[in-house]
Amino acid sequence: MASATPLLTDELDIVIPTIRNLDFLEMWRPFLQPYHLIIVQDGDPTKTIKVPDGFDYELYNRNDINRILGPRSSCISFKDSACRCFGYMVSKKKYIFTIDDDCFVATDPSGKPVNALEQHIKNILSPSTPFFFNTLYDPFRDGADFVRGYPFSLREGVPTAVSHGLWLNIPDYDAPTQLVKPLERNTRFVDAVLTIPKGTLFPMCGMNLAFDRDLIGPAMYFGLMGDGQPIGRYDDMWAGWCTKVITDHLGLGVKTGLPYIYHSKASNPFVNLRKEYKGIFWQEEIIPFFQSAVLPKDCTTVQACYIELSKQVKEKLSKVDPYFDKLADAMVTWIEAWDELNPNGPGAKLANGKAK
Amino acid sequence: MASATPLLTDELDIVIPTIRNLDFLEMWRPFLQPYHLIIVQDGDPTKTIKVPDGFDYELYNRNDINRILGPRSSCISFKDSACRCFGYMVSKKKYIFTIDDDCFVATDPSGKPVNALEQHIKNILSPSTPFFFNTLYDPFRDGADFVRGYPFSLREGVPTAVSHGLWLNIPDYDAPTQLVKPLERNTRFVDAVLTIPKGTLFPMCGMNLAFDRDLIGPAMYFGLMGDGQPIGRYDDMWAGWCTKVITDHLGLGVKTGLPYIYHSKASNPFVNLRKEYKGIFWQEEIIPFFQSAVLPKDCTTVQACYIELSKQVKEKLSKVDPYFDKLADAMVTWIEAWDELNPNGPGAKLANGKAK
């Protein structure tokens, strides 16, 4: 991609789960001000979130979510950043970039500020290569290509649905690792983007994430976390496992690597351990479940795949904990709500086009 | 791995397919002089290869190969760097590092010369993680770890069989890409090592490669290339496909990324095209073959896996070209020769131990 990266200002929304840090948007202003922001307030709806002048935004608190979704609002987490997925649902744009408010602008090894969004756009607008590994990483980057021995029939690649960015400074560790390595910082700037191969799951972090809403939006459900739920900090993981199984099934790609953000603040490992500890057990059964999940061929839309996955969750994970029974139901509610708010989604549009 | 990397001078051989370039060993002297070299002369046996003073080496030319292997020498390529695999067979060491004579010492972004062998040793002595992708790359490197959401049961990893290093300057492109992009140079130093996930094939390049001979040696057959063969430049690819299928089956790992070498000289793209063009067609059938190859559970040694693969090659690829029938036979000959020269291989040792 030697040409300039398009800004996509009319096609991309920024989704932020609350803003506690006033510096956050000031720091990102040079890069994010041209975009529309969707802020989903994760806590007490009576508190006001202050957005600096000059930003174009809409703000949703719990009352708004309840009003818009009615009884279906039960599928959106409360007092947890998992609520951000409501923003994916109400967006009308093709692309989403979601970022946490403790993520600041990173600098590359030359000291230049990293325009994270520009790199995400590059990642998403160029194809993925999930069927064979390219040892020089993303063959679509400037100065790179497919290496000797890469089959020519696979060089067109597939559409990229997800761009997963990384974090300098505070790494995204679980509570046990945080407790064991409180001082570890990520200082290694790895100048690479790569496709996660088909059939391989990965831990998707929601801190610095972009995706094509038209291609994969309905799979980006961040589950039931936080208030009233037995678990937290698995919202993005859940979305990542579901998303990867569905992108693999539909022939779409997931990239990881650049861009970096600077993750400024380590969350409290003791609080995290309380949120996570059930997940630490459960993931030992959840991951084999997703690794062996097979979607039938007639699931040709993300929604159909997701409903099918919800059935398999109910059938195979409910025995791990009754929570998964509730989560499977919430997955269905999420899709119902998505379809209600997006009646003219890509599938519907196509159907209308055919009917004419 | 915070402790110093062991040198393994008594456990590692350097295998080099001929040396045309007198500067080559001088440049590597600080790093390679402590090791034993095995040079396998790929061309005219009457020509002498000059090795600078101070290096401990053994040199094999075609006459030596014929003498040592007798009729089985037919499995070793002539006038092609694929002959290097003879060096793997005659080595008595646990580890092999193989490097081409147009590969010089690279410098890292700080300008420091890269000790490629030291990085290969780090890669090979630390486990691989083929079952789940770690977004911060090799979790066993200093300053890295497993990220949130990585199952704890998978954090021990598996033994690493192969460390695949990369190339700055001249990238390892096929002839068509060389022709289209004659001036492209790889200047991107990606500071990463990663495990190639289970089930994913990759184009293994033999320019800068290390492996554990005890774990995977018999799969590192570089096939029939060069003189009298219809194809060239697929020797390392063939070894890579076989190796990856077998490491996946046996629960071993393959890493790629660091270390870099500086690849000084682009080979002639016209000559390369003549060598490669059949491979460009064939790989479209070979890769799906390896992607779907399944080894039976009772194949518990590399040799057994390799013999089984040779049967599947004969059965499924001979229809692509009679060459594969010949190659399948050569695969069997290779294993016979390997076992003859290595009567006390790991399997044999175990059997002896049990018999006592």
UniProtKB/TrEMBL annotation, chains A, B:
<dbReference type="InterPro" id="IPR004901">
    <property type="entry name" value="RGP"/>
</dbReference>
<dbReference type="Pfam" id="PF03214">
    <property type="entry name" value="RGP"/>
</dbReference>
<feature type="site" description="Required for activity">
    <location>
        <position position="148"/>
    </location>
</feature>
<protein>
    <recommendedName>
        <fullName>UDP-arabinopyranose mutase</fullName>
        <ecNumber>5.4.99.30</ecNumber>
    </recommendedName>
</protein>
<dbReference type="GO" id="GO:0009505">
    <property type="term" value="C:plant-type cell wall"/>
</dbReference>
<dbReference type="GO" id="GO:0033356">
    <property type="term" value="P:UDP-L-arabinose metabolic process"/>
</dbReference>
<keyword id="KW-0961">Cell wall biogenesis/degradation</keyword>
<comment type="similarity">
    <text>Belongs to the RGP family.</text>
</comment>
<keyword id="KW-0325">Glycoprotein</keyword>
<dbReference type="InterPro" id="IPR029044">
    <property type="entry name" value="Nucleotide-diphossugar_trans"/>
</dbReference>
<keyword id="KW-0333">Golgi apparatus</keyword>
<feature type="site" description="Required for activity">
    <location>
        <position position="155"/>
    </location>
</feature>
<feature type="glycosylation site" description="N-linked (Glc...) arginine">
    <location>
        <position position="148"/>
    </location>
</feature>
<dbReference type="GO" id="GO:0052691">
    <property type="term" value="F:UDP-arabinopyranose mutase activity"/>
</dbReference>
<dbReference type="GO" id="GO:0071669">
    <property type="term" value="P:plant-type cell wall organization or biogenesis"/>
</dbReference>
<keyword id="KW-0413">Isomerase</keyword>
<dbReference type="GO" id="GO:0005794">
    <property type="term" value="C:Golgi apparatus"/>
</dbReference>
<dbReference type="InterPro" id="IPR037595">
    <property type="entry name" value="RGP_fam"/>
</dbReference>
<comment type="function">
    <text>Probable UDP-L-arabinose mutase involved in the biosynthesis of cell wall non-cellulosic polysaccharides.</text>
</comment>
<dbReference type="GO" id="GO:0071555">
    <property type="term" value="P:cell wall organization"/>
</dbReference>
<dbReference type="GO" id="GO:0005829">
    <property type="term" value="C:cytosol"/>
</dbReference>
